[in-house]
Design a protein that fits this description.
By secondary structure, this protein is of the alpha+beta class. It contains four helices and six strands, in the order αβαββαββαβ. It has a three-stranded antiparallel sheet with strand order 1-2-3, sandwiched between helices. Strands 5-4-6 form a three-stranded antiparallel sheet. Strand 4 and strand 5 form a beta hairpin. It is elongated and about 65 Å long.
Length: 190
């Protein structure tokens, strides 16, 4: 039983055209596909039998209300029917996968929003070196990780070549650059 994760024959298989239209219809109806492979329609069996799969269970993964794909387990040792408990467990895994996909997408969306923010935003490691920085931060501090401060919380760096009258921000996490022409000094006493 060789691992099949890198098998190019299993990548981007068009379900309906590839002979798996029955699976697609079942998944769209939120039904599982399961059982011994020898009981499956002839069009579905060659690819499964080439992987030495004797039985399988596959459940749909829905993300954002649409069919995203499926999650499955194979039994390459014996023919068998999967229990309702096994299907419920795999469905729980499919729900967790959908939640993880949602979390990744939300993270990407948040990162895009933060990148457009007019604030200096950076995620720092325990030594104060940026792990991630938005566009405003990267523009103001072109290479902050090249020369980390020995005490980043006590001696924050200021942008290179600030404009005349520009007040450098104090930042451990975030600060807002002064709007052009607004003030040359901060509104509090210095």
């Amino acid at each position: 039983m060789a691992p099949q994760i890198a098998n190019p024959d299993l990548k981007r298989v068009p379900m309906a055209k590839g002979g798996y239209g029955r699976w697609l219809r079942a998944f769209l109806e939120n039904r599982a596909v399961s059982g011994p492979v020898r009981t499956f329609p002839q069009a579905e069996r060659p690819l499964l039998e080439a992987q030495d799969i004797r039985s399988l269970l596959a459940v749909p993964v829905f993300w954002e209300g649409r069919l995203w794909g499926f999650l499955g387990v194979d039994d390459c040792r014996q023919e068998r029917a999967f229990s309702a408990e096994e299907e419920a467990f795999l469905r729980t895994g499919a729900e967790v996968l959908a939640l993880a996909l949602d979390l990744v997408e939300r993270h990407r969306h948040l990162e895009r929003l933060l990148d457009q923010a007019p604030l200096y935003l950076a995620r720092l490691d325990p030594e104060g070196r940026p792990l991630w920085a938005n566009l405003a931060f990267r523009s103001a501090f072109p290479s902050p990780w090249a020369r980390p401060s020995p005490r980043p919380w006590e001696a924050p760096r200021t942008p290179r070549a600030p404009p005349p009258g520009w007040w450098p921000p104090s930042w451990p996490w975030a600060s807002r650059p002064w709007p052009k022409g607004w003030r040359t000094r901060p509104p509090w006493p210095t």
